[in-house]
Amino acid sequence: MTDAESAPAEEVVLPPLELHDPLPDVVEDADSLQRTLEALRHGTGPVAIDAERASGYRYSQRAYLIQLRREGSGTALVDPTAFDDLSPLDDVIAPAEWILHAATQDLPSLAEVGLRPRSLFDTELAGRLLNLPRVGLASLVQEVFGLSLAKEHSAADWSRRPLPEPWLLYAALDVEPLVGLRDALETRLEEAGKLEWAHEEFEALLAFAGPAVRSEPWRRTSGIHKVRGGRRLAVVRALWEARDAIARERDVTPGRILNDAAIVTIARSVPRTRQELRDLEVMRSRGARRYLDTWDTAVSQARDLDERELPTASGNDSDGPPPPRSWPERKPEAAARLAAYRTVLAEIAERHDVPSENLLTPDAVRRLAWDDVGGGDPDAIAAFLREKGARSWQIGLTASALAEARRALDV
Hints:
Elements: H1 3-6, E1 26-27, H2 30-41, E2 44-52, E3 65-71, E4 74-78, H3 87-93, E5 98-100, H4 103-112, E6 120-122, H5 123-129, H6 137-145, H7 165-175, H8 178-191, H9 195-205, H10 230-250, H11 260-269, H12 274-279, H13 286-290, H14 292-303, H15 327-330, H16 332-352, H17 362-370, H18 378-387, H19 392-408
Parallel strand pairs: 1-4, 2-5, 5-6
Antiparallel strand pairs: 2-3, 3-4
């Protein structure tokens, strides 16, 4: 082996993405908003838009900064908390296509301040349909432009005021590449024969209102699998609900009041007195002890519940089928259908170079298999998939193949 072959590869340092224009001031009063509206009105083409939240600090998912960029208009950084009504902004940009990255993250918070797209292009979703290995904004900027994009402030407390200049620079850079990125990805989609797929996906996103509301959200407590028995699960539920009420009232992310690990620890020990609760190691922090009486009341209420009021291990958070791992024993014919469907979908995904999860939602596939929808009839399967929100391109690729796989099981 030569010295050249044995030497480690030199790391390639990409040049950073930079702003085309100077960093703008934050729009936080009526006069600056009016100037921004005029600039956007005289711009051309689509509008790149992004929103910054304070998810790790606040209970709400409200937007604390909205970034916009349009050709001929430049970049605008709007503080939505400074305005009672942003409908004038919506009126100006409504006729244009909006470019977002990972639209489902931003659409609910944008809608909360009155901003709703009538047409959009999602660069992350475009990257997924192209089956690119990484579809984060920084990765796409590197893939398409050969530039680096720092993401060090993505988890910052954007409710802070005033916002530091490095954060504002980071925010402006998030919309800087979106117009060019959109055009490059559209070209790739057209070359791959997937542009119509993308149009259907983007159209469906216009109706997105937020993630589904769970009937028993407390079951999402991290580490709950360590809790055994209905009584202890009742403690988890009581503590989760008490914490949620405090977090909602204070607009603080729940984990900053009492983290999930503490809830699980308390539930597993089921302290019988306030002192026992106070003596737990997870109660030593000032934040946890601040609401000690609330936690004590929650534990007492769970401890005193009638057996009939205790939650079950499986719960009823969904009207769907049970976890697939239980199917071979509970309903082996459904397990066979699911395995066949998954095999078929994997083959279709590979053939069309698209991720399997973008063909059909896992929930739709599980329901199809568990209930034996259609029994091998492609029209019935297509109708079911359409009812579950599948787009025409997805149904066209999968319905007949799934029906054939189902019929093969009867041979």
